[in-house]
């Protein structure tokens, strides 16, 4: 299992819309998240930023992320979520949410 953290800004005036979307995530999107081996997925908010945390239990992260990105319902879900988000200027090429470095963990 590998832990992932990422960060993105909330677009101005879009926090309540984003919260409303995530209060009722589509079952098909949740199913795809599960089928792509993500567990313990959470999103937190603070001062204009969203922080995402999940655990990956699969053995081919790139393939699972490609599978998720290819899913038509997930693509449709993203058309609602992406206007609520504002990527960090410091993100790596190809990232929407900026990956974060884990600097501490304890079980």
Structural commentary:
The protein is built from four helices and five strands; from the N terminus they run βααββααββ. By secondary structure, it is an alpha+beta fold. The model has no long low-confidence stretch (mean pLDDT 97). The protein has one domain (2-99): Dimeric alpha+beta barrel (Alpha-Beta Plaits). It has helices at 15-22, 27-35, 61-70, 72-81, and strands at 2-10, 38-46, 49-56, 85-86, 98-99. The two termini are 13 Å apart. β2 (38-46) and β3 form a beta hairpin.
Overview features:
alpha+beta, globular, Alpha-Beta Plaits, 5 strands, 107 residues
The tally of helices reads 4
Class inferred from helices and paired strands? alpha+beta
The CATH superfamily is known as Dimeric alpha+beta barrel
- Give the overall pLDDT as a whole number: 97
Cα gyration radius (Å): 14 Å
Q: Strand fraction band?
A: 25-35%
CATH architecture field? 2-Layer Sandwich
Shape descriptor reads globular
CATH class: Alpha Beta
Low-confidence stretches: none
Please count the beta strands (DSSP E, at least 2 residues each). 5
Distance between the termini: 13 Å
């Amino acid at each position: 299992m590998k832990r992932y953290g990422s960060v993105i800004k909330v677009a101005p005036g879009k926090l309540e819309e984003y919260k409303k979307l995530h209060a009722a995530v589509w079952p098909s999107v949740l199913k795809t998240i599960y089928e792509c081996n993500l567990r313990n997925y959470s999103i937190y908010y603070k001062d204009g930023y969203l922080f995402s945390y999940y655990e990956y239990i699969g053995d081919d992260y790139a393939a699972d992320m490609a599978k998720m990105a290819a899913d038509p319902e997930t693509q449709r879900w993203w058309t609602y979520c992406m206007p609520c988000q504002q990527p960090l200027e410091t993100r790596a090429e190809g990232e929407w949410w900026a990956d974060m470095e884990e600097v501490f963990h304890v079980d």
